[in-house]
Amino acid sequence: MALTKLDNLYRAVILDHSAHPRHAGELEVGCVIDLNNPTCGDVIRLTVAFDGEKISDIAFSGHGCTISTASASMMSELVLGKTKAQALELAHVFSEMVTGKSDPAQENLGDAQFLAGVSKFPARVKCSTLPWNALKKALDQEKLTSEVANAH
């Protein structure tokens, strides 16, 4: 496939996730994380519900640029049903990818692989990682909540 056709495919997938975000909205229960990117104004509210070690439901709301919204949509699709450890590993692989580091595990990122080109635009890296950072915070918060519950 010619490079321009591949670039067009990448753009189409990113634009589709931005225009028709998967898992957009809010959950009535779950861990709620609010984050913003002060450099561009992106804001996300991520709600993650857990069933034991698995992510049983996920939703996001807020407002952001095309990259931020597409990344949140892709991330939400990817981590739903995954264990906390799997989701954390995917967040790590994604962060490595958008900062220009190569990792064979990138193939596990599904549509999120299409955001690899963000590494060429340092100002956009924060846009793409905002939802993933919210996910990491939700996983950290859930871990603390579980530890406190197990201590009692």
Automatic annotation (TrEMBL):
<dbReference type="GO" id="GO:0016226">
    <property type="term" value="P:iron-sulfur cluster assembly"/>
</dbReference>
<protein>
    <submittedName>
        <fullName>SUF system NifU family Fe-S cluster assembly protein</fullName>
    </submittedName>
</protein>
<dbReference type="Pfam" id="PF01592">
    <property type="entry name" value="NifU_N"/>
</dbReference>
<dbReference type="InterPro" id="IPR002871">
    <property type="entry name" value="NIF_FeS_clus_asmbl_NifU_N"/>
</dbReference>
<comment type="similarity">
    <text>Belongs to the NifU family.</text>
</comment>
<feature type="domain" description="NIF system FeS cluster assembly NifU N-terminal">
    <location>
        <begin position="10"/>
        <end position="127"/>
    </location>
</feature>
<dbReference type="GO" id="GO:0005506">
    <property type="term" value="F:iron ion binding"/>
</dbReference>
<dbReference type="GO" id="GO:0051536">
    <property type="term" value="F:iron-sulfur cluster binding"/>
</dbReference>
